[in-house]
Write a structure and sequence with these properties.
single chain, 325 residues, Cytochrome Bc1 Complex, Chain D, domain 2, three-stranded antiparallel sheet, binds heme C
């Protein structure tokens, strides 16, 4: 009995000390910084480059679908151009993350950052101060030309003064930053240029490196973002950011004849669907921005999705009431 008490006492002390050490480590590490080179990207004032950037930002890359202010939500969801002054909030289990102001305002936007600093956020997932970016943005493999185009367009945005508190995370969020979050960078040396055309190869580039189709239509761990299911087979559930009472599950968009949601769709049906915009209110899919995609790119996407591995995965319901816990 005495021995048991002694063991319990000592294990209590050990556990207590471990917790203290863990808490101390979380506080010491949650702001940790990373070394990462600045991509050699320089903004251009060429009007064709800026036009390509504008198209990407308001179309397939859907920056507008996230970096809008709450009062502009309806317009952003409809695919209209709105000031990219930030403030839209993602409610996550570990806290609130708001999109930063990415207008050219020097004090509250990105006007004071260098081209290399902005390029490093998008390509290497490292903030100007060295902290890791939470991996919301899928642009690590964007070509040099497209990254240049995006930054060149951002430079033309009129400054809007709008201070945003980017992160308000709880202890779990700090622990996640301290131990789980490291910068996500390119999967290979990014291409210098990928020429827009209607081929499956270009569709693959949009689906993986610009529009993030793969990031939502593949099952993932909501906490770490790790991919846990076959690509494009759907089944990834997420509460709606704008209507938290609804939880969405992405459909299987592989060409599996039985369970593939779009297996019977012709190219015409697919094109028409992308012109329609939001059909289910609260959907996380940025249909508004995608509505602005060119016919060429939507066709390329369709052609690419025909070539992905068919996977059997029946997704019963794409929208359900969020279970309260
Ligand atoms: C899915 C939502 C989403 C999309 C789409 C998105 N962003 Fe972001 N962006 C965020 C979030 C959230 C953060 C803050 C991340 C964090 O706190 O770790 C951020 C951070 C940034 C930053 C860092 C700003 C700073 O002050 O350091 C830049 C620059 C940026 N985004 C630019 C863009 C551009 C350009 C696009 C389109 C090509 C884009 N974003 C698309 C959500 C998004
Ligand atoms: C932020 C997450 C997200 C991204 C990014 C995303 N989707 Fe979706 N997608 C969803 C969700 C959730 C649904 C189900 C609700 C709906 O239909 O809006 C959906 C539905 C669909 C549907 C079925 C629509 C219908 O009317 O039945 C198709 C097709 C589709 N997505 C294709 C794509 C393609 C192609 C891309 C990339 C260009 C993409 N998605 C990017 C989340 C996403």
């Amino acid at each position: 009995m005495e021995r048991l008490k002694a063991i319990l006492k000592w294990s209590g002390i050990v556990l207590g000390s471990l917790i203290v050490l863990f808490v101390a480590a979380v506080y010491a590490r949650h702001d940790r910084t990373f070394d990462s080179p600045y991509p050699k990207i320089t903004a251009s004032t060429d009007s064709a480059v800026i036009a390509r950037g504008k198209y990407l930002v308001n179309g397939p890359a859907h920056c507008t679908g996230c970096h809008f202010a709450p009062e502009d939500m309806a317009k952003a969801a409809a695919g209209e151009e709105v000031p990219l002054k930030g403030g839209f909030a993602f409610q996550l289990p570990f806290g609130v993350i708001r999109t930063p102001n990415i207008t050219s305002d020097k004090a509250t936007g990105i006007g004071a950052l260098t081209d290399g600093e902005i390029a490093r956020v998008l390509r290497n997932g490292v903030f100007p101060d060295g902290r890791a970016v939470f991996d919301f943005m899928p642009f690590h493999d964007l070509s040099d030309e497209d990254l240049t185009a995006v930054i060149s367009y951002l430079r033309t945005l009129p400054p809007v003064h709008n201070p945003v508190v980017n992160r308000e995370v709880n202890f779990m969020g700090k622990a996640v930053s301290a131990f789980l979050i490291t910068p996500v960078g390119p999967s290979a040396v990014p291409p210098r240029r990928v020429t827009p055309d209607s081929t499956a190869a270009y569709g693959k580039y949009i689906a993986h490196s610009i529009a993030n189709c793969v990031g939502c239509h593949t099952n993932r761990d909501l906490m770490t973002g790790a991919f846990v299911g076959p690509s494009f087979a759907g089944g990834f559930s997420m509460p709606s950011d704008v209507m938290p009472e609804l939880t969405f599950t992405t459909p299987n968009i592989t060409p599996d004849p039985e369970t593939g949601h779009i297996a019977q769709w012709t190219e015409e049906v697919f094109l028409h669907r992308f012109r329609q915009g939001v059909q289910i209110p609260g959907t996380p899919m940025p249909w508004g921005s995608f509505k602005n995609m060119s016919e060429l790119e939507v066709k390329a996407l369709y052609r690419y999705l025909q070539t992905v591995e068919p996977v059997k995965n029946k997704v019963e319901k794409v929208v359900q009431k969020t279970e309260s816990n």
